[in-house]
User: Which sequence fits this backbone?
C-alpha cells in the first residue's frame, strides 16, 4: 500500500496502521503493509513518527511500484492528485481518497478510470469526516428511493455560526477564534464562501440520485454576509442560522436541486442543536423514512478513521477477487436552476415611517405571487423596519419581488434576505 500525503490526515493514517496492525490484519485476512509515503519535503516535522525509509518525494514512482496494490490519496487539490490517481488505476491499483474537490470537479474521469481498469474507488472520507454516510447511501439505501439530503457538512462554518449565536460574536470575531483553534485555515475562503460544502453536496447528490453532479452544478452562497443582527433576528423568531447543503428531488421526480446557502431553521429542529465543528446530515427516503447521521466532520483522527474503513474494504475485495460498487448514474437527472427552487423566506426591509407603507410592500409581494405568512412592523423614524416571513415561493419570484422593492421610494434598504428551512422535519 502507498500513501500520498502525510499531513494532518495522512500522519494519523500512519499512526492507526501501526497501532492497530494486528486488528486490521485480522479484519482483512492479511496484513496491511505500508510500502511508502510520498511527501513534498522529507525533513518536515510530522505529527506522527514515520520510518524515514518509507518517505519519498517521487510520488509517481511510488504509485506505479509493482509491490503496491492500494493507493491512499490524502494530499487534496486537483493536481498532482488526479494524475497520480490515474497513473495508479492505469496499472490496476485500487484507490482510497479523501479528495472532495477532485471528485466534485472531475469525478467522471476518476470513476471512468476505475471502471476501465477494474480498480476500486472508495471515498468515504471526502464528505463529513468520520461519519459513515456515503456507504449507507451507496449500499444500504441502494434498494430505496432517496427524496432529499439535508445537512451541515462544513465544521468551520458551523463553528463560526454557533459562536455568533451563543456568544453574540461578530463574523470576524468568530472567524478569528476558529482560526486560533485550528478549525479554520489562514485563508478560510473555501469554507466561509461555501466551496467546500458545495463540493460535498455535489458528491452527495450524485450518489443519492444516481446522476452525475459537479461542483459547478451547485448553487453556492457563503456566510460572510451574515451579521450579528441577522443572528439576533433569527433568535427572536425561535430560529438559528446554519450553512446547509440541500439536495432534493423535484416534486415530479424529473430533476434535482443542489444548493449550499445559509438558512434559518427552527430551534426545535435536530440540526439546530449541532454545535461547534460537528456535522450532521438528514437523509429522507421513501421506505426508510428520515435518517440522521451525526459526528465529527473533520480533523486528522476522525477523517483517518473513515480512510482506514475504506482501506479495509478495498483490501478485502482484492483478497476475494471482487470489487466494490461502481458509480451509478443511470437516472441521469438534470440539476434544475436555482430560480425554480421553492422555499420560505425571511426578509427585513428598512422603510420610511409613514402610513400606507405595509400596503405598498404587500402589493409588490402579491404582484409576484409571493404569499406573506407573517409580518412585523418594528421601530420608529429612521429605525422603522418591516420583518416578513413568506409562505413557500420560487427563488425567481422572490428575486423579482426584492428587485422591485428596492425601487420603492418608501424603502431605504432591503436589510437581509434569508431562506427558511426545516419546518417540515420534527
Assistant:
Amino acid at each position: 500500500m502507498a500513501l500520498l500525503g502525510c499531513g494532518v490526515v495522512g500522519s494519523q493514517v500512519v499512526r492507526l496502521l501501526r497501532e492497530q496492525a494486528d486488528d486490521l490484519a485480522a479484519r482483512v485476512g492479511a496484513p496491511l503493509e505500508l510500502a511508502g509515503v510520498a511527501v513534498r519535503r522529507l525533513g518536515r516535522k510530522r505529527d506522527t513518527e514515520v520510518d524515514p525509509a518509507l518517505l519519498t518525494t517521487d510520488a509517481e514512482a511510488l504509485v506505479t511500484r509493482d509491490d503496491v496494490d492500494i493507493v491512499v490519496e490524502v494530499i487534496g487539490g486537483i493536481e498532482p492528485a488526479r494524475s497520480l490517481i490515474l497513473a495508479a488505476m492505469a496499472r490496476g491499483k485500487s484507490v482510497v481518497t479523501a479528495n472532495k474537490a477532485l471528485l466534485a470537479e472531475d469525478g467522471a474521469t476518476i470513476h471512468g478510470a476505475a471502471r476501465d481498469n477494474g480498480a476500486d474507488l472508495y471515498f468515504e472520507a471526502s464528505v463529513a469526516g468520520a461519519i459513515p454516510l456515503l456507504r449507507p447511501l451507496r449500499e444500504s439505501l441502494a434498494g430505496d428511493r432517496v427524496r432529499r439530503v439535508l445537512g451541515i457538512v462544513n465544521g468551520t462554518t458551523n463553528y463560526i455560526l454557533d459562536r455568533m449565536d451563543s456568544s453574540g460574536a461578530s463574523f470576524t470575531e468568530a472567524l478569528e477564534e476558529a482560526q486560533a483553534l485550528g478549525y479554520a485555515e489562514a485563508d478560510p475562503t473555501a469554507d466561509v464562501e461555501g466551496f467546500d460544502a458545495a463540493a460535498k453536496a455535489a458528491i452527495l447528490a450524485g450518489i443519492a440520485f444516481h446522476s452525475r453532479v459537479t461542483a459547478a452544478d451547485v448553487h453556492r452562497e457563503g456566510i460572510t454576509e451574515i451579521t450579528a443582527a441577522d443572528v439576533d433576528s433569527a433568535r427572536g423568531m425561535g430560529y438559528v442560522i446554519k450553512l446547509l447543503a440541500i439536495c432534493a428531488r423535484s416534486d415530479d421526480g424529473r430533476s434535482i436541486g443542489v444548493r449550499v446557502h445559509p438558512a434559518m431553521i427552527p430551534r426545535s429542529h435536530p440540526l439546530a442543536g449541532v454545535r461547534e465543528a460537528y456535522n450532521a446530515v438528514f437523509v429522507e427516503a421513501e421506505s426508510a423514512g428520515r435518517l440522521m447521521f451525526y459526528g465529527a466532520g473533520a480533523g486528522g483522527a476522525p477523517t483517518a478513521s473513515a480512510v482506514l474503513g475504506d482501506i479495509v474494504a478495498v483490501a478485502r475485495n482484492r483478497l476475494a477477487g471482487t470489487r466494490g460498487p461502481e458509480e451509478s448514474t443511470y437516472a441521469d437527472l438534470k440539476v434544475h436552476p436555482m430560480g425554480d427552487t421553492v422555499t420560505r423566506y425571511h426578509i427585513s426591509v428598512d422603510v420610511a415611517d409613514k402610513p400606507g407603507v405595509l400596503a405598498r410592500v404587500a402589493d409588490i409581494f402579491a404582484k409576484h405571487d409571493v404569499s406573506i405568512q407573517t409580518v412585523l412592523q418594528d421601530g420608529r423614524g429612521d429605525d422603522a423596519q418591516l420583518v416578513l416571513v413568506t409562505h413557500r415561493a420560487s427563488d425567481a419570484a422572490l428575486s423579482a419581488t426584492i428587485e422591485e422593492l428596492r425601487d420603492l421610494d418608501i424603502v431605504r434598504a432591503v436589510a437581509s434576505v434569508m431562506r427558511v428551512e426545516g419546518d417540515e422535519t420534527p
The longest strand covers residues 255-266.
